[in-house]
UniProtKB/TrEMBL annotation:
Is synthesized initially as an inactive proenzyme, which is activated by self-cleavage at a specific serine bond to produce a beta-subunit with a hydroxyl group at its C-terminus and an alpha-subunit with a pyruvoyl group at its N-terminus. Pathway: Cofactor biosynthesis; (R)-pantothenate biosynthesis; beta-alanine from L-aspartate: step 1/1. Catalyzes the pyruvoyl-dependent decarboxylation of aspartate to produce beta-alanine. Binds 1 pyruvoyl group covalently per subunit. This is Aspartate 1-decarboxylase. The keyword Cell inner membrane does not apply. InterPro entries: Asp_de-COase-like_dom_sf, Asp_decarbox. Its cofactor is pyruvate. Heterooctamer of four alpha and four beta subunits. The keyword Cell division does not apply. The modification Pyruvic acid (Ser) is found at residue 25. It comes from Algoriphagus hitonicola. Its main location: cytoplasm.
């Protein structure tokens, strides 16, 4: 039996853009992606601290070192520029593996830069 476990989390980053007329996804600074062990097209959950909205989408690479966090397509309606969001990825694991697994959690600064 597999269970779903938090694989990684980017805790409290600021939304820098919201692009409604885009195919869809979340654009994340590649430095943050690397630190959080996220890959392009990976499914993530977005939790908006400001308004309580939760949504799922997939990751696309943003410019490295830019601090970019951009919600694209319909997800843009769930955020405002300046909102604080938490980005969470999950992985399926066997129960015994899950008991030993340690997720990656990063805490960027208020400019979405790694501390």
């Amino acid at each position: 039996m597999q269970i779903q476990l938090m694989k990684s989390k980017i805790h409290r980053v600021k939304v820098t853009q919201a692009e409604l007329h885009y195919v869809g996804s979340i654009t994340i600074d590649e430095d943050l992606m690397d630190a959080a062990h996220l890959i392009e097209n990976e499914k993530v959950q977005i939790v908006n601290v400001n308004n309580g909205e939760r949504l799922e989408t997939y990751v696309i690479k943003g410019e490295r070192g830019s601090g970019q966090i951009c919600l694209n397509g319909p997800a843009a309606r769930k955020v405002a520029v300046g909102d604080i969001v938490i980005i969470i990825s999950y992985a399926g694991m066997e129960l015994e593996e899950a008991k030993e697994f340690k997720p990656v959690v990063i805490f960027p600064d208020d400019q979405n830069k790694l501390i």
